[in-house]
Structures are given as C-alpha cells and as structure tokens.
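During the reporting period the student researcher (J.K.) took over the structure-prediction task from the postdoctoral fellow and processed the backlog of single-chain submissions. One of the processed entries is reproduced below for the supervisory committee.
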Amino acid sequence: MTGKEKILNYLANRGPARDEDLAADLGMSPSSARTRRRELERDGLVVPVGRTLTKYGGETWVWDIAGRKKSK
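J.K. obtained the following structure tokens:
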C-alpha cells in the first residue's frame, strides 16, 4: 500500500486528523506524511476541515476525505 493509500484509508476509517497524527499513527516520517497529504489535497481527495493545535502549541490544519458528510 502506498503512503497516499495509507492516508486515505486512515482518514476514511478514523476521520479527520492532523499531519502529525497521520505520521505517528501510520509510522511515516512527518515530512513524508505532509508530502503525501499535499499530493492528495492537490488531487482533490482531501480537504482542510478546521484548525487545531499541534502538540507543541502551534496552529495546524485538520484534514479529512473530500466530500464527507458531517455527522450531526
């Protein structure tokens, strides 16, 4: 499974996540996770759905599958 496939599968099954969550949970380097996620964003497959804090207190985007219906 490619890095992009791992990220899509993760988001489909676990829901929205930060880049740092993707990297840690998928065993990828932070740089690789960001690069693969950017490719997915460029391809229109993932979109930013909000902002949150990193583990260091900075702001970051939360990403999810494009077109997912929000649950109520």
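The committee noted the following: Helices lie at 3-14, 19-26, 30-42.
J.K. will present the remaining backlog at the next meeting.
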